[in-house]
Amino acid sequence: MGRAVTVATCALNQWALDFEGNLERIVRSIDIAKSKGARYRLGPELEICGYGCSDHYYESDTLLHSFQVLEKLLESPATQDIICDVGMPVLHKNVRYNCRVIFLNKKILLIRPKISLANAGNYRELRWFTPWSKARHVEEYLLPSIIQEVTGQETVPFGDAVLATKDACLGAEICEELWAPNSPHIEMGLDGVEIFTNSSGSHHVLRKAHTRVDLVNSATAKNGGIYILANQKGCDGDRLYYDGCAMISMNGETVAQGSQFSLDDVEVLVATLDLEDVRSYRAEISSRNLAASKVNPYPRVKVNFALSCPDDVAVPTCMPIQWRHHSPEEEISLGPACWLWDYLRRSKQAGFLLPLSGGIDSSATACIVYSMCHQVCLAVKNGNVDVLTDARRIVNNETYVPEDPREFCKRVFTTCYMASESSSQDTCNRAKLLAEQIGSYHINLNIDAAVKAVVGIFSVVTGRTPRFSVYGGSSRESLALQNVQARIRMVLAYLFAQLTLWARGMPGGLLVLGSANVDESLRGYLTKYDCSSADINPIGGISKTDLKNFIQYCIENFQLTALRSIMSAPPTAELEPLVDGQVAQTDEADMGMTYAELSIYGKLRKVAKAGPYSMFCKLINMWKEICTPREVASKVKHFFRMYSVNRHKMTTLTPSYHAENYSADDNRFDLRPFLYNTSWSWQFRCIDKQVNAL
């Protein structure tokens, strides 16, 4: 019997409820896998319907259409003579499961339900699915009539089982099961399973990729075996970007690596590996073999099919490779850029509009759009027909070929500097120079007339005219006047997004981009319904510190010299009047804390699950060289007061690219009240007691 098995995994840019597009991409991946000699093909989690269907999983339509797609796959010539492993929801005994459906030559071999469901952070699988809790147990599943007509089967095995082909044994894991402390691959490996498969719906978080890679490699380092991981990629209709990274590992080492960020809708990895390498690796691990002799066996579904060829002695096998990880700055440049491209083409809009203030946040957002234009031109240069087709539709030109990122940027990206009497010439010049260097269509306008008109209405009605604090007004008056400017900018941004192309004699509308970073959102340092209110925000999950590093990356890699002066300027909202022609307002002075401190507060609050008292206890040690306990207490109290006062703003926060584990996104990641008792009397009293003791 042969020993060299050829297997394929893939990363697919699936889209929730896009059954037709999802089917086409699945078939295309199978065709590619077969053309490269693969005998087994693994796809991402819930690839038939798309992972992000959310409450649509409750609908019988989602189940129906998933089986209709499965019917097409079973009938397709592409799926003949290759074991196909696809993901879809399945209702068994009126209970909904997240399943793998594994089939060969119009016969379903096994339906394997997910055992450990992802239910933390952005994931809510327990809301829609039930975990399969019957270990090593298989039941009969009655197939729908449309599937029975194709397969000739009335029932098929459903449950926790493995496949035994003529030359190997395969066992499936689904996403979260790899991360669980009692991963199924441990017991499966002890029971003789040689090939582990994992279909994932795993999203991008800065600095996370190495964790996934380490988990896959460690899965076979102690137990031996081949591990195949498939993942979704792209934006499937939500805040998340699924970052591919399909991979194949053997005996603790990576042998095939897929891209983390790519505009290719279909990416297939194929590897040929020697099963004898697995068997010999396991042979010398005596502790593993002792445990294996006592393991409870898995039900085996016998498959009269081989993953290898009889005469394969001369077939070359894959060798270990070194995984290359992106730096955080590269991740920011590529991840949000790919997410923006998916959102743009799938929303069928004609481009983006960004209020460009000349500060770090809006400039970083502009650089991400410019990076997107780079990725589009590179994909077209490399022969990506899908990207070329989308680009031509977006610019409304059937013969257009995007070759120069600056020229493409001019067509799809509009930037707008909205000056007021509080704006400096410096920020105006910085915005204009950056727009020139990236190639955006740039608009300069002044909002003073609109601000005066709005304030004038208030004065006519009330007989009172509010003033800025520098002119003798109260803090209430000053804040209200700042908010009027900020909100008028939002109104104008949407007006220009809807009608700028119309005024230029071009079809379509623009998506408005927001540019509030994760730290400002956490602190609430933004005006509700100002320019932070937009269609989408590519930097809303990224810290100020990481954005500064990203700006430096863009200076070096995109030669955007305009960013140097933006980097050196102190962050400012420019909403208060100038003093002697110079900006007197700065973000950190307004907030009463630095951005570096904000990042620490954010990580302690969300990642370390610290309330006011626990945060104080941690910080008196972290900051013992720079702050007294009383100073730490003051800082912690100020943060929690400001956080709780402004938490209501998170309920209307623009949908943002999720990139950071301390995001304050109220949608589903960071579930908190938005009406707090902002005195925190009990908690602060505990802090005060400790301060006095110290």
From TrEMBL:
Keywords: ATP-binding, Ligase, NAD, Nucleotide-binding
Source domain of life: Eukaryota
GO MF terms held by the record: ATP binding; glutaminase activity; NAD+ synthase (glutamine-hydrolyzing) activity
A biological-process GO annotation: 'de novo' NAD+ biosynthetic process from L-tryptophan
EC numbers for this chain: 6.3.5.1
GO cellular component: cytosol
UniProt pathway: Cofactor biosynthesis; NAD(+) biosynthesis; NAD(+) from deamido-NAD(+) (L-Gln route): step 1/1
InterPro entries in the cross-refs: C-N_Hydrolase, C-N_Hydrolase_sf, Gln-dep_NAD_synthase, NAD/GMP_synthase, NAD_synthase, Rossmann-like_a/b/a_fold
Subunit structure: Homohexamer.
HAMAP family from the UniProt entry: NadE_glutamine_dep
Descriptive protein name: Glutamine-dependent NAD(+) synthetase
Organism: Callaeas wilsoni
Organism taxonomic ancestry: Eukaryota, Metazoa, Chordata, Craniata, Vertebrata
